[in-house]
Amino acid sequence: MPQLLQLNQVTIRFGGLTAVSEVDLHVGPRELVGLIGPNGAGKTTLFNLITGVYQPTSGAIHFDGRPTAKLKPHQLVRRGIARTFQNIRLFASMTVFDNVRTAVQVHRTHGIRDALIRGGQFRRAEADVEQQVMELLAIFHLDQLRNEPARGLPYGDQRRLEIIRALATQPRLLLLDEPAAGMNPTEKTELTELVHFIKEKFQIAVLLVEHDMRVVMGICERIAVLDYGVKIAEGTPAEVRANARVVEAYLGEEATKHA
Amino acid sequence: MTEFLQQLINGLALGAIYALIALGYTMVYGILRFINFAHGDVFMLGAFAGLFLTPVVQRFFPPQSYLGGIVVLLLAMAICTGFGILIEILAYRPLRNRPKLTVLITAIGVSLFIEYTCQHRLVFGAAPRKFPDLIPVTTWNVDQLVVSSTQVIVFVTTILLLIILRFIVQKTRMGTAMRAVSFNEQAAALMGVNINSIISFTFGLGSALAAAGGILFAMSYSSIDPLMGVQTGLKAFVAAVVGGIGNLPGAALGGILIGVIETFAGGIPGLSNYRDGIAFTILIVVLIFRPTGLLSKPQVEKV
Amino acid sequence: MKSGAKRYLLLALLAAVVISFFSAYFNRYYLGVTIDVGINIILAVSLNLINGHTGQFSLGHAGFMAVGGYIAAKFSLMLSPALPPWAQPLIFGAGLLLGGSVAALTGLAVGVPTLRLYGDYLAIVTLGFGEIIRVFFQTTETFGAATGLTGIPNWTNFGWAWGSAAICVFVVTCLVNSTYGRGFIAVNDDEIAASASGVNPVRYKVTAFVIGAFFAGIAGGLYAHHKSFLSPTGFDFMKSIDIVVMVILGGMGRTVGVIIAAILLTLLPEYLREFSDYRMILYALLIIIIMITRPQGLFTFGFKVRNSK
User: Fold this and answer.
1) Contact criterion met (CB below 8 Å) for C54 and C121
2) Exposed, middle or buried: residue A244 (CB in 10 Å: 0-12, 13-18, 19+)?
3) Is the C or the N end of chain A the one with fewer CB within 10 Å?
4) Contact flag A115-C178 (C-beta cutoff 8 Å)
């Protein structure tokens, strides 16, 4: 089966610093892949490369068989790549409903003209949007909060809202950047279930960056490990856990001697 | 060729003044990340300070002497240093943690306040005044080039002030503290730097330079009025942005660049009417190609 | 705000026309002031789209107003002697639209280069554009150079001014309060998140500038045919600041607040006429005090969520 996302020897340099170096990575159409590594390993940078925020200095990224070079982030969203952020980036001045509504329009031909003429077509389109957003919110039990200001939500709900907003763009690949950050163990278990649920219900691929090992090992089918911008290991959770290089990267040389 | 050199000299003289004012803008921006719109008015206040100080000083020093001139300059700089610090304490300090937009508008309000107050008949009045000759003015003719002593004074004074500034910024404790605060305010505070003092110091320093610029300008162009800071201040600000805001050599470079190009444009028949628009055109052109200015390093936003 | 919006618009237009019809019964001076109010509402609401809703801090709005004003004025001056009186409203309307369209093109010319600029840089560049436009009109003979244009026919009446204001408010409000319009707010709140949600920031920023400039141009045309003369100094940085203050006082992004602020700030100088000496000093003080005490605008009470219908 052809890969949904394919990275070949992707490298990016910022001035003198090589943040990501010759990384090969692939994600299949319904795979749940994890990306781990110590802080500063280049995981978020890799996300930024995949989503078009940065352009690689060398190497190539292909999504659905087509190169993503030179495409802007919003264009890649249209292709089917969605993401969440390490530090939650909701639209602070909007309601829960509007946050999702903004993302819904990427696949619609809503135009200025319609908004101004406000004819039948506009009303139907807006009704469609209403339905689509409410359905999504209902799936995640946020429908009762639709008119709440997004920034007033509890932290866990904000994270979920950000994920819902990403899902509203009807992606085929969802990138989650440290979704469990700041959560307590109960919330983390809920998150693990949430990610499984999303993968099943929406039939999409998920690429996950996470620090919490239990979350990663619990969710992912396959894990890639980055250290200083280089991929040092890849495999099933069990394989990665046993990999000496990985242990060394996280805990330092001393630890491997005692491992 | 002579024409070219002549324009160059004239341009450098104008550019030097722009540079002095631009330095103040850029220093404040480096520390506080905001544009002190009222800075151009400090330039104006410097010129007026000179206007009122000259007759007083000339009672103690022989009229039209270099010594008298220097005293007026220093006194004007001192007065404006006070003004600059006062403005900071009254108008900007209360807004220290507010969004940048708020402070920007407040700065505009302060600028307008100063301008309108000075225009009031009880203060300076709106009409332009003639600036007295501080020092004897002579012109030299070198090979068809006309260089006035005033221009030489402008060059010498500016260079001296720049050297002193560089010394202060690089070699003194206050200067080092200034630089620390501009890089990372929190870290500087943790290192024991008194942020309020440094901010006041910066405002004072910038205002002193602007005052010097005001005196030099008044000496060069004779006529001063309460609104003189508007256009000149704006252009100096543009110069600071062109050079890379927050960057001291950049401000000086920007000032000179704008002064020179503006003067040359003034000499070209078709272009001379658009003189006032030159500075902004340079700004737009530079920012399109280097969005953070000529000498600054582009900021990469962490996503 | 579906068919309700159109109903309000038609009502407003009707009211404007009716009141205009009886304008002969009103005090000329006060009528002039209300026309000023109408024009300022257009300026404030159009700038609000750029500054308030989309968050692009533009300090050069007077430049767009100037473009619209001069083009419309020139159009009228050239055509009105040659055409019969009954054609005047047509010329006026056409001139306004022409002025607005050229202003919109100018908005495009400003919006595109400023795409990569933010905050202070954006402010100073837009200010620069405004100044360049002013210098252009100040030096071009066709537009009267430093003396400006005089003898512009006095065609702006209550109906034109407030009718245009109603249309402007309708357009901007309907635009922003739609799913499409959420994009403006998104770009303002967080451009990176907006991109990640499929919103094209370039498209929205440029659109905001173009539409904002268009209406500013219309306001300029109305202004020209109200005062009957145009002077380049009337469109300087100060004028841009005047409009910005209205938007800020009204609370950036809140259309109703901005309209009220526009009304108040147009009427205020009239009431301060007695203190003419101190008028501008008080105005400056007012700005400073408001910014220190109530920067969120005078008319924002509690958290008003921008949820739209």
Assistant:
1) no
2) exposed
3) N
4) yes
In Å, how far from its chain's centre is CA C156? 16
Q: Which chain C residues have a beta carbon less than 8 Å from that of A169?
A: 197-198
Q: How far is CA C148 from CA B229, C50, C79, in A?
A: 25, 28, 18
**Helix residue ranges, H only, chain C:** 3-21, 28-48, 61-79, 88-111, 119-139, 158-176, 182-189, 191-196, 201-227, 237-249, 255-271, 279-293
Closest A-chain CA to C187: A91
Q: How far is CA C205 from the centre of its chain?
A: 17
Q: Residue C230 has which token pair?
A: 């145009």
List chain A residues with CB under 8 Å of B300.
Answer: 14
The closest alpha carbon to C220, from C290, C185, C168, belongs to: C168
B275: closest chain C residue by CA: C135
Chains with 3+ CB–CB pairs under 8 A to B are A, C
* ipTM confidence score: 0.88
Identify the chains in contact with A, defined as 3+ C-beta pairs within 8 A.
B, C
Residue pair B181/B32 in contact (Cβ under 8 Å)? The answer is: no
How do the pLDDT tens digits run along chain B, 303 residues long?
778 888 898 899 999 999 999 998 998 888 888 888 899 999 999 999 998 888 888 788 777 777 888 888 999 999 999 999 999 998 888 888 787 778 888 888 999 999 989 988 778 888 888 888 777 777 888 777 788 888 888 888 999 998 999 899 888 888 888 888 888 888 888 888 888 888 999 999 999 999 999 999 998 888 888 888 888 888 998 899 888 887 888 899 999 999 999 998 888 877 777 888 888 888 888 888 887 778 876 555 555
Whether chain A has a CB inside 8 Å of the CB on B298: the answer is: no
Q: CB C124 to CB B113 under 8 A?
A: no
Name chain B contacts of C131, Cβ cutoff 8 Å. 234, 276-277, 280
What SS3 class is residue C297? coil
Q: Contacts of residue B113 in chain C, CB cutoff 8 Å?
A: 281, 284-285, 288
HEC-encoded secondary structure of B223-243: EECCCHHHHHHHHHHHHHHHH
Residue reference for tokens 């409000």: C173
Mutation site, A118, A128, A134, A163, interface C, largest C CB count within 10 A: A118
pTM above 0.80, yes or no: yes
Which one of C179, C189, C308 makes the best mutation probe of the A interface by having the most chain A beta carbons within 10 Å?
C179
Which residue, A226, A236, A238, A180, is CA-closest to A10? A226
User: What is the residue type of B190?
Assistant: L
Element (H, E) at A102: helix A96-104
Distance from CA of C115 to the nearest CA of B (A): 9
Over the Cα atoms of chain C, what is R_g?
19
